[in-house]
Amino acid sequence: MSASDVITYETSNDGITLRAALSGELDLRDADEVRDNLAAAARSSTYQVLQIDVSEVTLIDSYALGALVSVRNSVAAAGMRVTLINPSPPVAKAIQVTGLSDVFGLPPLE
């Protein structure tokens, strides 16, 4: 599991959750790295849940949001669940506009 400038990892004490925290501006420039890094970390782990904290994301564009959907789909195909937690206002708005709350295990945003 490797980290990048926008991703940090932490293992959980519960033995089933791998936690990743994203930060900064996530856009076209970072989308592929975020997708590839998260997917590789999930595939190389024995955890059942990939929990992605997006509280420190200050901007997210459609490419980066698509990268997160791609991670969710590829990880789900391997039997691992992906959830987003603590969405920052820009992430919450993007999820609300795209209708992806259920995909990421978030309650519907109002």
TrEMBL record:
Task: State the signal peptide span.
Answer: none
Return the PROSITE patterns for the record.
Answer: STAS (PS50801)
Write down a Pfam family by its short name: STAS
Domain of life, per lineage? Bacteria
Domain STAS residue range list: 22-110
- Protein family (similarity comment): Belongs to the anti-sigma-factor antagonist family.
- This protein's name: Anti-sigma factor antagonist
Recite the lineage of the species.
Bacteria, Bacillati, Actinomycetota, Actinomycetes, Micromonosporales
